[in-house]
Amino acid sequence: MYKSQIIEQRIDPETMLLPYLRKQHILSCTKYGCGEGGCGSCTVMISTIHPISKKIIHFSANACLLPVCSLHGTAVTTVEGIGSTTTRLHPVQERIAKAHGSQCGFCSPGIVMSIYALLRNHPEPTMDQIYEALGGNLCRCTGYRPIVESCKTFCKEVNCCQRQEKCNGPIKNGPVENQISTLFNKEEFLPLDPSQELIFPPELTLMAGKNKPQTMVFQGEKIKWIAPITLEELLELKAQYPKAPIVVGNTSIGIQMKQIGVCYPVFIYVGRIADLFLVKYTNEGISVGAACTLSMLNEILYDAVSQLPEEKTKIFRVLLQQLKTLAGQQIRNVASLGGHIISRNANSDLNPVLAAGNASLYLMSKGGSRHIPCNDSYFQSTEKLPVLFPGEVLVSVLIPYSQKWEIVSAFRQSQTKMNSAAIVVSAMRVLFQENTDLIKDCNIFFGGIGESTVCAKKTRQGLIGRHWDEEMLSDACRLVLDEVSLSPAAPGGKVEYKRTLTISFFFKFYLKVLRELPSVNCHSPLEISGDGGVTNSHIAKPSAKQRYQNVKLNQPLQDTIGRPVMHHSAMLQVSGEAVYCDDMAAVEGELFMALLTSPRAHAKILSIDLTEALNMPGVCDVVTAKDIPDTNEFRFIDWDDCLFADEKVLCVGDIVCAVLADTPAHAKQAVNKVNIVYENIEPAIITIEDAIRHNSFHTPDKKIQQGNVDEAFKKVDNIHEGEIHIGGQEHFYMETQSVRVIPSKDNKEMDIYAASQDPSFMQGLVASTLGIPSNRIHCHVKRIGGAFGGKIVKTAHLAAITAVAARKTKQAVRCILERGEDMLIKGGRHPYIGKYKVGYMNDGRIMAADINLYSNGGCFTTESICIMELAVLQNTHAYNIPNLKCHGMVCKTNLPSNIAFRGFGFPQSALITEAWIEEIAAKCNLPPHKIREINMYGNVAMTPYKQEFDTCNLRRCWEECMESSQYHDRKEKVTWFNKQNQWTKKGISIIPLNFPISYILSYQNQAAALVHIYVDGSVLVSHGGTEMGQGIHTKIIQIASRELQIPISYIHICETSTATVPNTLATAATIGTDVNGLAVKNACEKLRGRLEPIVKGNPTGTWENWVKEAFIQKISLSATGYSRGYDTYIDWEKGEGRPFQYCVYGAACSEVEIDCLTGDHKNIRTDVVMDVGCSINPALDVGQIEGAFVQGIGLFTTEELKYSPEGVLHTRGPGQYKIPTVCDIPQEFNVSLLSSSQNPYAIYSSKGIGEPALFLGSSVYFAIKDAIVSARKERGMSDIFTLNSPATPEKIRMACADQFTKMIPKDNPKSFIPWAIDI
């Protein structure tokens, strides 16, 4: 953004840069994703003059956390400022778009700005720098691979992986010939010319040089912001306002204010005080100014390590290691070292290192100055027993040099590799007497255990003077466990795991010291394997191949079917010009809605008092169930739900009322002033087990049966029983739920703009709620910033509430949920428990299975029964089980209703099946892939519901994946590796996929379209599908292009609207392109048929000529198209039918490496083979496969929803809920589309591909389990064990039981109330 100079005389200190840009300057390309600096959607580049060097510096930052008051004298560059489709795109924008790195596009501007800021500093970055730059950006759609590939083109090194267009031509030696893997051509990219970048505004340079800086004061509604210039002024202010927080980056205080409502009347901003940025080399170490950002600290330490002897920089190196994974780059660029220390965060990555390294803090006040040690006395200080005196300010931190006989190390474990707070962090330092292994001094500090950094003092005292040997190790572990205590009900949970990590970390340090201790007579007889763990700061160079079948040589270039065409909105998305719901400018008088939700899981509403809320500034009205013109209840298919909680609440997050005000801030403030009196209702049913115990179920249940299970159990060689729990999953689409309702002036019609997958359902629900016909409600969906099933029922629900408010106030109303609200209210993927009894023969043949599936449906049925139907029908997955009983029950609980999510019950059901497949393999002493092959469908297969499928391509995918992944060779290498390494294990697994396509209810498979040809030859296509990143509009344009025989540039899709195509169905179930494509084809065929006589009469004419002639001849140039879709059904009484049209087949092989001591894992390699029929667009299909696969990695390994026993969701944002980051994807990621595959049921023999590949992410889960099995066997434990999903570091570590886990004290579950429970 360069809007010349912006002068603000009055700015509220509470105003963050993000709303300032979006609302006050209508620069809407910078997006809101989370509001806590955790997703990177709001990334901008800040340019400023360094207070000491006076050099211009550029860095990325999160606009959601930056107070506008802190930006005096800086230049803010947003994505609007670097390029656009109307001028010229910047190379980073162009490359991400053309390399297919933008799907829904909501995260794209933030990713663009992260890389742009990197390129301003490093025009030819390394891969490590690219990963660091992207570490603070989340993407839910792409799986990151295409983003990394596009960024890699800026790297200096030229290697085979970069030069795709030259080395990724036709594949002659692969599994199938006539396959290519060129998804983009690097030669087409604009060159990066650093000399053409925007310059730092000269007026800011002049201002910095000429004007004498003055203290700045801003007074807001609640907060005063003071920005002094000198250290002396700061000390005066701190004496005057001793409790005022000192702010640099606002990354700690800002989040506290947002999440827990902390408010301070005065803020002191010190980012303009040069003395706080001073860096000095002293005889003892390096003194670093407290206001230096963590990125500055990184540069300081890097320079020191480069210049000083290695023995002096050991502490510096450990700090550099910790800085790599501390938050995201945007946070490190603004968060200060002093703020990090002063905040005394329990999970701090740096404080334990500083304490262990004997750093000291230099404090100043009006009364003088002093140095204090950065130790446990400081970190354990409290408000009642403070270490800092009133008025004291941290000026600098002295980080000491290390010594020759000193060894320092730090360890951390988090849920994901980057941008994830440590579960436990530790720093340890030992100093030996010269030329001995006698401990002269040591320090041991932990974070994540208590309220702040904890010192193991008694352990330290017990170790001094000891030899570094096994006896010392054993004693140290006991001392640590005795000293570093943790309550079983501690916030954050994972108590036994945290206890285990404390001694596991010490053991890792013990091994490290043995390896690094200079040659002395070491007293330890322990054999050192050299495999202390998998976690390395170095990021392996990524590798990826994408293979697909080339189009026929005689296919016209104009015909893009089968070619990798870029997403039609990609250029708009990377430039930020793509308009999403909340980007639309407000109309005059538009109101903003905030929702009040229940804090109780099950309670009566005794009274609601709105008086105080209505008297708040800016408040217009409050809407409750009593304001609904027609009915508060609504139905989705056959099941009831309601808009507002009326007489009682059924879950935490139940919507009770909605406040309307002139600004979002005023609406949120007023929500807190609504006074509601509740009375609890017992019981509050939270978990599946609770529901089973109370016989609380949604009806009907679902059953399927074939053969005679009871008789089969009598004849089998063996019977195996077990159960497994699969956790839920949050959709975490990047654009939160968004709705705008604009009533007509006469209040008889409404236009609704929403991020909805099903505008017609939304239209019908709003109409029935208001008691008016549907033809008065016009719903518009331009694009959606990700959905994954989460924007069907709940979006319509919110739209109906918003419409009631608009009807009541006769004003436009906007409802945009914050991330925490969205996660709390909406529900997500259903948690499942699978209980199974399986009969099998000694040779591995499965003869019978009795399966009970339980899902946690929440308080209303909503989509749960439909989802359970699919889970029951597909519970055999890819296997022929001659005798089967499957019973599916949806538990009715006091949680928000869980809803559709990519895969629709299939991932949970299939994982349960694959889990017992692996257990039977262990019982039969056969490798799991053998059991899978023995029982896998082949040729024409009959399902338990009596439908036949040709499953030949299932076997083809399996065999091709076996071959391309080199499974057998790599399995041998994994076995060899595991024999050589005691504490690090590898695992490998190959998993098949048999995913059915279509809605079960036949009417949901229909679609319609409308195609207009204008006199100038341009074409406008409308259809019932919604664009949410999957590329449906792009494929529809390709279809229309082929049918009309015109270039895709002639064709445009504006939006999905109920006013143009009525009675649409939800874009879901992976059939969007199937049915809407056929409808568009039908309309185009009609139009082409009408033009055919004119074409024959003038065969050498142009398209434009033919269209004009048709218009002159009064031939209609508009046509509707229709597709009946698929005739599907199921008779549940008979247990038979044709519920699906066809299946998508596939297979994935994944290899992982786990750290048995911490539970950490890394994804080494994944090979995916997918049968997508004849791909309409290989780039989009590969993108869907990769994105779904990585979402599956999240479901099965990192994404963990945490609820309190009272039903309160703890994980309400990216800080607590961890979707995969760019560093969590496989280091080698290969995707191949099965060649020569035909599908007679869908358009152009293609297949739907949006959902199926998600389950293949389970190959990572089973590879992890394979690695755990290796560790357990080595320790003499059973290889049959339950690994509940997700396979988090906690579960991995605790499954790798060893002498350390045996030392952990076990708590009696009845003696405490846990922080969180499995639901």
TrEMBL record:
Q: Where does substrate bind?
A: F904
Looking at the record, the residues that make up the FAD-binding PCMH-type domain are 218-404
User: Which GO biological process annotations does it have?
Assistant: lipid metabolic process
Q: What are the residue boundaries of the 2Fe-2S ferredoxin-type domain, all occurrences included?
A: 1-82
Q: Where does Mo-molybdopterin bind?
A: Q757, F788, R902, A1069
Keywords per UniProt: 2Fe-2S, Cytoplasm, FAD, Flavoprotein, Iron, Iron-sulfur, Lipid metabolism, Metal-binding, Molybdenum, Oxidoreductase
Q: What class of enzyme is it?
A: oxidoreductase
What Pfam families does its record include?
Ald_Xan_dh_C, CO_deh_flav_C, FAD_binding_5, Fer2, Fer2_2, MoCoBD_1, MoCoBD_2
Q: Which residues form the active site?
A: E1251
Name the Gene3D superfamilies for this protein: 3.10.20.30, 3.30.465.10, [2Fe-2S]-binding domain, Aldehyde oxidase/xanthine dehydrogenase, a/b hammerhead, Aldehyde oxidase/xanthine dehydrogenase, molybdopterin binding domain, CO dehydrogenase flavoprotein, C-terminal domain, Uridine Diphospho-n-acetylenolpyruvylglucosamine Reductase, domain 2
Write out the GO cellular component annotations.
cytoplasm
* One term of GO molecular function: NAD binding
Q: Where does [2Fe-2S] cluster 2 bind?
A: C104, C107, C139, C141
How does this polypeptide assemble, per the annotation?
Homodimer.
Q: Which family does it belong to?
A: Belongs to the xanthine dehydrogenase family.
Q: What is this protein called?
A: aldehyde oxidase
